[in-house]
Design brief:
The complex is a heterodimer of chains A (132) and B (400). Chain A contains 6 helices and no strands. With 132 residues, chain A is an all-alpha fold. The longest helix of chain A is centred in the middle third of the chain and has 19 residues. In chain B, 5% of the residues lie in helices and 47% in strands. Chain B has 2 helices and 34 strands. In chain B, a hairpin with a 5-residue loop joins strand 18 and strand 19. The radius of gyration of chain B is 21 Å and the shape is globular. Classes of the chains: A mainly alpha (132), B mainly beta (400). Chain A: GO terms for molecular function: electron transfer activity; heme binding; metal ion binding. Chain A: This is Cytochrome c.
């Protein structure tokens, strides 16, 4: 989220307005965008590996649904914190170490807007190689 | 409907010569008489179809599409090992005739499901559901709904997700409630009139196993260090915590995929169990429930599966280490072999007597086979985004 003011209260108000005024697609395109190759990798990871708890269709499983409808009342900051730092007391693990915070932000924005379909794994990755 | 022969030839031949081969099929195809003991079904999770395979010649026999969302799927076999009941993520319950290679029944029985089980006498199948939480009982012949048990708990009428459903002798079923931290035992002697007993268990059970004799039910816990065990020969003793405090108070490591538990954990009188949040396999002696070992492994274990003779235990791992597998020697209780069978190993299955293991490499779009004695790769089969591999010998095992 962009910093608009130096006081916390104003930031919160401005951020709220920003979210309210932005269309979902604008939100998805704001901020950091990974390289096309990394996007392919991230989309595959979310659909397939996050999908083991949240479902390939992201309609939920042991973990909750991550469709735009399911996320519409959830603040972006909370979602980012959940993805990047995990959610203590639940099975949601922190993805820091797998993802950068910027990549996490990109994923959250795509989830809120409607996540892209999986184009498959990167063709070049060798067996057992970590994503990062 | 096109037959076995046509489908197979179509896949082999491609478009150009298919018409010719189809003509050949039409004139030569006769009913194939064969057993099902060497057959199996592989889930293709991204395409919503299953592939029927045979492990004698390591070939695919048929592809059966139209099973819905199989992003998480499991199946059980009818007692004659001809029909597979496939439980899909979207609540679909599909009955597949694996000899004919076709769907013979399908219902959408819930909004979000995780698996199922079949009764001792094979007359009904039971689905375990996340949404709405509970189990549902279906006639194995017709898939008609016979009864259900909503997993209502707490003071506000909420329903818990059901995990770890296993069949028991006496047409009984046992399962765990994730949010409620309870184990429920449902007697379906009369499948239209379920009788349920509730047992308090540990926090956040995520899956469970029943030992091959149907005696001990062990639920893995996400919410605490330990596992919940119920002795079904003496259920009046209640649930006991085994392996208490196995994490030794250390900060747990992130769990990027929940482990899966089943009766394959038992080898040589001991249970080999995945730790949660620790890169270890825990070894506990059945009966005494003493921890007799903990084996450091490469990452978070997912499937910890003993070879049918119990001499070795093969392990795969959670993302991002899911390209690796390891083999544990059960006399030494240590890892003796590490290898990389392919990208994104989701599941594996031993052939009935354990001479081979078949391994799903999702991101390589293939199932690979290894000789379990030489540990050499002996074959592979192209399968799109494979996950679960289920051989028909499950039909005759309690808890499968």
């Amino acid at each position: 989220m962009r910093v608009i003011s130096s006081t916390n209260g104003l930031v919160a108000v401005a951020a709220g307005l920003f979210v309210a005024l932005s269309s979902k697609s604008v939100l998805a395109e704001e901020g950091f965008v990974p390289t096309p190759e990394r996007i392919k990798e991230l989309v595959h990871m979310v659909r397939q590996d996050c999908g083991s708890c949240h479902g390939l269709t992201l309609k939920g499983g042991l973990g909750p649904a991550l469709t735009p409808d399911a996320l519409q009342d959830k603040p972006y900051e909370g979602l980012l914190a959940t993805l990047y730092r995990g959610r203590p007391g639940t099975p949601m693990p922190p993805f820091m170490g797998i993802l950068t915070e910027e990549e996490s932000s990109w994923i959250v924005r795509q989830l809120m807007a409607g996540f892209p379909e999986d184009g498959g794994p990167l063709p070049v990755a060798a067996p057992g190689v970590r994503v990062r | 409907m096109i037959g076995y022969c046509q489908r197979k030839l179509l896949r082999i031949a491609g478009v150009a010569s298919a018409a010719l081969l189809l003509a050949a099929c039409a004139t030569t195809e006769a009913p194939v008489v064969r057993g099902t003991g060497d057959l199996g079904v592989i889930i293709e999770r991204a395409t919503g179809q299953v592939t029927v395979v045979e492990s004698t010649g390591r070939t695919a026999l048929a592809e059966v599409p139209g099973l819905g969302d199989l992003s998480h799927a499991s199946l059980v076999y009818s007692r004659d090992a001809r029909y597979a009941y496939v439980f899909g993520r979207d609540g679909g319950l599909t009955k597949v005739d694996i000899l004919a290679g076709e769907i013979v029944g399908r219902v959408i029985q819930a909004g979000n499901a995780i698996g199922g089980a079949i009764s001792q006498d094979g007359r009904f199948v039971v689905a375990q559901n996340y949404e709405p939480g509970g189990i549902r009982v279906f006639d194995a012949e017709t898939l008609e709904l016979l009864s259900e048990v909503p997993t209502v708990w707490g003071d506000h009428g909420q329903r818990a997700k059901v995990v770890g459903l296993r069949d028991l002798p006496g047409n009984r079923f046992i399962y765990s409630l994730f949010e409620a931290g309870e184990i429920w035992l449902t007697d379906l002697s009369d499948p239209t009139n379920p009788q349920t007993q509730r047992f308090p268990a540990g926090r956040q059970p995520y899956d469970a196993l029943i030992t091959p004799d149907g005696r001990y039910y062990i639920a893995g816990l996400f919410g605490e260090d330990g596992m919940s065990m119920l002795d079904l020969w003496q259920p009046e003793l209640g649930v006991r915590t085994i392996l208490p405090g196995y994490g030794r108070g250390e900060e747990p490591l992130p769990v990027f995929k929940m482990p899966h538990l089943r009766g394959w954990a038992i080898a040589g009188g001991k249970a080999y169990l995945p730790a949660i949040g620790r890169h270890e396999v825990l070894v506990v002696e059945l009966g005494s429930w003493e921890e007799v070992g903990r084996i450091p492994v490469r990452s978070q274990p997912v499937f910890v599966m003993s070879r049918p003779d119990g001499r070795e235990v093969w392990v795969n791992f959670a993302f991002p280490d899911n390209g690796w597998m390891q083999v544990i020697d059960t006399l030494e209780n240590e890892v003796v072999h590490s290898f990389q069978p392919g990208r994104a190993v989701l599941h594996m299955e031993f052939t009935p007597k354990g001479e081979e293991i078949w391994i799903s490499a999702r991101d390589d779009d293939k199932v690979v086979m290894y000789d379990t004695r030489t540990r050499e790769r002996i074959g592979e089969l192209p399968v799109v985004s494979p996950s679960g591999i289920f051989f028909t010998h499950r039909a005759h095992r309690v808890g499968f």
